[in-house]
Records
---
Amino acid sequence: MPFRTIPRDAWDHLLEGNQRFATDTSVHPHSGSSRREELRTGQAPFAAVLACSDSRVPVEMLFDAGLGDLFVVRTAGGCVDAAVTGSLEFAVTTLGVSLIVVLSHEECGAIGAAVSSFEEGDLPSDLTRVFVEKIAPSVIRAKRDGHEERSAIEEIHAAETAEHLVHRIPPVQARIADGSLGVVAARYRLEDGRVTSVEEHFAG
Ligand SMILES: [Zn+2]
C-alpha cells in the first residue's frame, strides 16, 4: 500500500478518511479483535500526528483511522517540549512513519489564552502560563503579519510548530530531503468536521 511509504499518499489517505468522517460515512477500519490480535507482535503506524488534547479533537476518529494506524501525541495547544520532540523522532526513526501532521483546531482554548495574554500584556501566574509561553511565538508571528482572526492565528500556530519540528529534529529534516517523510501543518474545523492543509513540507 503506497500510502504507508509515500508521504503525499499518506496525507491523501488521511484526507480521504476525514472526508468520510465529515460526511458521516466513516467505515471505522482496523477496529476489531482480529486487528488487535494482528498488532500483538508490534506496530507499524504510517503517520504521526501532533494535536491538541481538546476532547473535541479525537485524532483517530476525525481521520477515520483505526488501531495501529496513527502514532498520536497530544498536549494542550499542541505545545512542543522535549518529550514531544522525542516521541515524534521515535515515530520517524524507529517506527518509520512517512508523515507527521501538526494539527491545530477551531476554538483552541490554549491559543485563546495566549492571544488574551498577548493583547492584555499580562502573563498568567497559574499552570496555563506554560502554554502561553509555548504559543507566544505563533501569536507574535500572526500579529506581525497583520492577522487578528483566531482562525488565522490557529493556522499560523500549526505552521510555526511544523517549521519548528522540521528545523529542530535533524532526522526529520534529513528524511524530508530524501523524500521518505512529509510534514504537514493543518487545522481542524469543529464547524464542519474538515481538516484543511495550511503548509506542506514535501521533497521536490
Ligand atoms: Zn486546543
---
Amino acid sequence: MEAIWIYQFRLIVIGDSTVGKSCLLRRFTEGKFTDISDPTVGVDFFARLVEIEPGKRIKLQLWDTAGQERFRSITRSYYRNSVGGLLVFDLTNRRSFEHLKDWLEEAKMYVQPFQIVFLLVGHKCDLVHLRQVSREEAEKVASAFGMKYIETSAKDTVNVEESFTILTKDIYERVKRGDINIQEDWEGVKSGFVPNVVHSSEEAVKPGRKCPC
Ligand SMILES: Nc1nc2c(ncn2[C@@H]2O[C@H](COP(=O)(O)OP(=O)(O)OP(=O)(O)O)[C@@H](O)[C@H]2O)c(=O)[nH]1
Ligand SMILES: [Mg+2]
C-alpha cells in the first residue's frame, strides 16, 4: 500500500547559488544535513510522498536547480512542467533576497502558457546573529508577490516538512477547485495511482457462494 497517491505534483526549487536549496531537499527527502555541499550541476532530482490528510497522499517529484548563472539555460527548461516551487533566499545573504524579483520574472517567462504556485522561503534561520533580512521585510515582499512566506533551517530541521506541505496543500486546493487542471502535454500534475478495491479475504471467499457458471 506504500506507493499509493492521489496526485503527483512536480515542484521546482530555485534561488541563488549557496542559499541552501540542495540541503533543504536532502533534509526533506533523506533526513540528512551536511555542512559541506557541492554546488548543483544543472538539475538534480528528488522524490517523496506526503500525506496531506489522513489516507490522502501526494507524490512529489522535486527538481533541485543550480543557482549558478552558467547553468541557467538548462534550469530554465524545467519551469514549464512544474506546477509549483520554492523560491529560496538566504536570510544571511541580502543579495539573494534582492535577486528574488529576477528569479520570479524568469520563472513567469519560462512557465508560459502554464501557471506556477510559489512559496517564498527564507532559509538558514538558525544563523540568528548573521541575519540580514527581517521577517517583516520578507513578509512584505511575499505579499507583493502574492505568496506565502516561511523561514526554514535544514541544519536545525525547522519548518522543512511544513514548507513542502504548505505548498502541496495550496496546489491540492487549486486542483480540487479546478483552478489547475491536468493536461495531456504537461507534467505539472498527474492523476495518481489508485489500486482496485481490495476485498478482505473473508469477503472474497464467502462461504456458500456458488460459482455463477
Ligand atoms: N547554517 C546553515 N547552513 C546551511 C543550511 N542549509 C544549507 N546550508 C549551507 O549552505 C551551503 C550551500 O548549501 P547548498 O544546499 O549546496 O546550496 P544550493 O542553494 O543548493 O547551491 P547551488 O546548488 O549552487 O545552487 C552549504 O555549506 C550548506 O551546508 C541551513 O539551514 N543552515
Ligand atoms: Mg544545490
